[in-house]
Amino acid sequence: MFGPMHQVLVVEDTPSMRLVYERILARAGHVPIGATSMAEGREIFARERPGIVLLDLMLPDGDGMDLLREMLATAPATRVIIITANASIHKAVEAIRSGAFEFLVKPFDEARLLTAVENAARALAPSPVENGPLFDVHIGSSKAMEKVVRRIRRAAPSMATVFITGESGTGKEMAARALHRASPRAGGAFVVLNCAGPAGEAAATRQDPRLDQIARADGGTLLLDEICEADHAFQQRLLQLIQDGALPGPDGGSARKLDIRLVCTSRHDPYEAVRTGRLLENLFYRLHVIPLRMPPLRERGDDVVEIAEVKLAELAREEGKRFSRIDDEVKALFRSLPWPGNVRQLFNVLRNVVVLHGGASVTRTMLPVEILHLEEEAVRAEIVEEVEKGEMPLLVEDLVGRPLTEIERIVIETTIAREGGSIPRAARVLGISPSTIYRKRENWKKGAG
């Protein structure tokens, strides 16, 4: 069941617990070395340089967090498994973010300990894509995406849960797959579980079909897609699974132990989801260990053009078309658009062009009308921002050719800005009631025009 023998340093000040851990490790074929204090653990680590460390955070002569940082500063590849009490989960999460491999919450059983150590042992082996490309598609070369790649490479060898957030279409699942491919579990299954699944009574029973999907991820990675959409009954099941490391057996039978690396995605702010009660707080602290934000396309500069050029070539091959370049005017437009649908929307635009048009170059006239409307909305939003800041001069030539509703908004917002933000004074200048301005502003916020 287990891989090659590994030396494991056990830093635990309670003698009985240390002996239990050492016996379990020895029976599994590992070589445990015990330490009862921070000082002794530091000395043994410097002498033996074990690849795996089992570290209690509460030590009699210091904070285990300090020893963790010292070990990783000396030997960054060391896999440190934190031991913590349930009340100290916050500190365990902090340890993971400082570089620890995983944490175990007392009390834990023999199987849970050995699984954590075996995962750490596997992580010591080089990943098949350690230095190769992480993604199957071109993601651009922006600083924002370089940061994403760095975090994925750092987190991949660990068992710590990665919580990926971002708008729809930013590539959250793509990042999760890259994390799996770069991990020691690349040979195992990658299972995507849609958390917005069955709710209510069915979800509170063993008949919930999502539990079968969880079992399929044994030995691999489980993606909890849109975790904030899960009903509370299912969230409670997930919390129990994480705590026990097992699924309940059918009809109350013996539980099935699982070895799963968890990754979560959400288009919602998880902190806000906890605040509003959508996401259980206990589950949040178990899952939100290593946060990873996927930046929207509008924050990625020239990535939009790079990605478009690569995708255009791919689509041209699929459709048997001659497209090989994008006009400079279209590139400039792509850079300026807000892309609310992100990369997914960009791909749809390009497919529309390739399927419906011919030629070697993508021109502005080939773009779907929705994109041109999006350009108008972007320009309008820029005007409104300038008006609200009081930066746009109110000149007749600035108003000619604009819709009447837009002119009205420009006039009202500019007047408010010139009156120092006072709506009552602006209303007097314009000869209307303050309530009219308040009502119009509320409608503008709602997009009613």
Describe the fold and architecture.
With 449 residues, this protein is an alpha/beta fold. It folds into four domains: 7-124, 3-Layer(aba) Sandwich (Rossmann fold), CATH 3.40.50; 143-293, P-loop containing nucleotide triphosphate hydrolases (Rossmann fold), CATH 3.40.50; 296-367, Helicase, Ruva Protein, domain 3; 390-449, Arc Repressor Mutant, subunit A (Orthogonal Bundle). Helix content is 48%, strand content 14%. The chain contains 19 helices and 16 strands. It has a five-stranded parallel sheet, with helices on both faces. It is elongated. Mean pLDDT is 85; it is low at 200-204.
Essential attributes:
449 residues; alpha/beta; Rossmann fold; Helicase, Ruva Protein, domain 3; 4 domains; five-stranded parallel β-sheet; 19 helices; 16 strands; 14% strand; elongated
**What is the helix tally?**
19
* Beta-strand residue percentage: 5-15%
At the fold tier of CATH, the topology name of the largest domain is: Rossmann fold
Query: What structural category characterises the helix and strand content?
Result: alpha/beta
Rg, please?
28 Å
Q: What's the count of strands?
A: 16
Q: Tell me the strand order in the biggest sheet.
A: 2-1-3-6-7
Largest beta-sheet characterization: 5 strands, parallel
What is the highest CATH level, the class of the largest domain?
Alpha Beta
Question: Which superfamily, in CATH terms, is the homologous superfamily of the largest domain?
Answer: P-loop containing nucleotide triphosphate hydrolases
Number of domain units? 4
Helix content: 40-55%
